What does this fold into?
Amino acid sequence: MGTTHSNRSHLTRSAIELARLVAQVATVDDGAICTFVGTARRNSEGREVNLLRYEAYPEMADQEIGAIVAEAERKFSGARIATLHRLGDCPLGEASVAVVAAAPHRVEAFAACRYVIDEIKARAPIWKQEQFRDGTAWVGDPGSFKPRIP
Amino acid sequence: MNVRVLLFAGLAQRAGVREWTIELPSGATVTTLRAALESLHPWLREVPVAMARNQAMARGDEPVAAGDELALLPPVSGG
It folds into this structure.
């Protein structure tokens, strides 16, 4: 046990391999492993998305996610967390983020997993751009639609 | 003194660059930096922006020193 995984980067430009994250935290003392995988969805408020593209302030995002992991491991007894957020292009259906929480019991595993994904979404300096057939837009930034020049 | 200001996502798109360098008087704070940026780039007033200093969220009254890394952060949308 412990937090030997905490020096790993929480950001990746490659496809996320959930099994590798599980292997980082699972031990024979765990009775529960809770995983969350956020995936690139086609529908965005009625518009069809072709691709998601993620950008981060990488140093700050990595530190912030590390802080969130440490908070969760403190708050939820026995929980250990591995998490990875994808940057760059994320094709539809692929994982944009994954959180794995291992703990002796399921209550802490569920709670830690939920805490980490909720806080990453609220706090990590990461931005999602939706790519449509006719242009692109940054999510949560209404003035950012940029038409695609044919 | 000169400080670097990093831009991300929709802000970098609007600015057309990923980084500004701005000259500030000594004694500048995050708030006076923000005001200086808004007078140079009035469109900044129209978009919600948080500021980070040296990779941590910054309060308005924090002093800004030469060599600091400032960043303008639009509302986050990771996950």
